[in-house]
Design goal:
Blueprint lengths: L22 H6 L27 E2 L2 E2 H14 L23 E3 L6 E9 L4 E12 L9 H11 L3 E8 L2 E3 L1 H5 L2 E3 L3 E5 L10 E14 L5 E13 L6 E13 L2
Length: 250
């Protein structure tokens, strides 16, 4: 499913190719607040430096954090899901632990206002996809699910991020492609994947930005991802874009 930063894929949605707990709250409660490879963002005169993809943050790999992002997104029913939020009023749903998740959209641009507690790192996808056994019952192994998720992102045509008006180059953004390990999804009634309560396993692939905590005050994060693929049996065109006006609490 694609979510792009939100959702879009099998359900092409990135932040979401459906691209995808409040598993996060329980799970992250046991995670250390210490960052293995802290990066100094004391000066906001330049773009904050995202965490390198090969590092461990808060005792988890980058790929594990992307799995947590999907678990978070799918744990929130559609009627209050942050990926479907047009204003930002749902940005606090299901949040917990040292990392704050931002969602993309189900397609097109949403402009949102969001207040984030101090000392939270921020993770968001530009465009991403997840393949689950629920969506694709013919795919039963981790390798099959991984190949599915990767294939959904092979035709990505655009990646864009600015933080406080400072862009990150597309070349650098393409280095932030990350695959998750196999992970569990516990789906509540009304979820955005199937609507029905249940569980399944999934693997995701996507382009992510994971930044250290921003200083207190007002900030802006703007991101977009696009995929255009005319080679598949069904045309796959999807654009997701989100503009967040963020206030970091004092």
């Amino acid at each position: 499913m694609y979510l792009a930063a939100a959702i879009a894929a099998a359900v092409v949605i990135g932040g979401i190719a459906v691209y995808y707990p409040s598993q996060q709250q329980a799970a992250v409660a046991q995670i250390s607040s210490n960052t293995t490879n802290p990066i100094n963002n004391g000066s906001m005169s330049s773009t904050p430096t995202p965490f390198p993809t090969g590092t461990i943050q808060y005792n988890l790999t980058y790929g594990n954090w992307t799995a947590r992002w999907w678990q978070w997104l799918y744990s929130v029913p559609e009627d209050r899901n942050p990926a479907a939020d047009a204003t930002g009023e749902k940005c606090h749903e299901g949040q917990g632990g040292p990392v704050w998740f931002l969602a993309g959209t189900f397609g097109g641009l949403n402009e949102r206002n969001c207040e984030i507690p101090a000392e939270k790192s921020i993770l968001f996808p530009l465009i991403n996809a997840a393949c689950s056994k629920l969506e694709y019952p013919e795919l039963q192994t981790e390798s099959e699910l991984r190949n599915c998720a990767v294939s959904l992102n092979e035709a990505v045509t655009e990646l864009m991020v600015t933080i406080d008006g400072q862009p990150i180059s597309e070349q650098e953004l393409r280095s932030y492609r990350v695959q998750s390990p196999l992970f569990e999804l516990n789906l509540p009634q009304g979820n955005i994947l199937s609507g029905e309560q249940g569980s399944t396993q999934a693997v995701s692939d996507g382009f992510w930005v994971f930044v250290p905590p921003l200083p207190p005050g007002a900030h802006e994060i703007h991101f977009r991802g696009a995929v255009v693929d005319f080679t598949t049996a069904s045309q796959n065109n999807f654009v997701t874009e989100a503009l967040y006006h963020i206030t970091i609490a004092e």
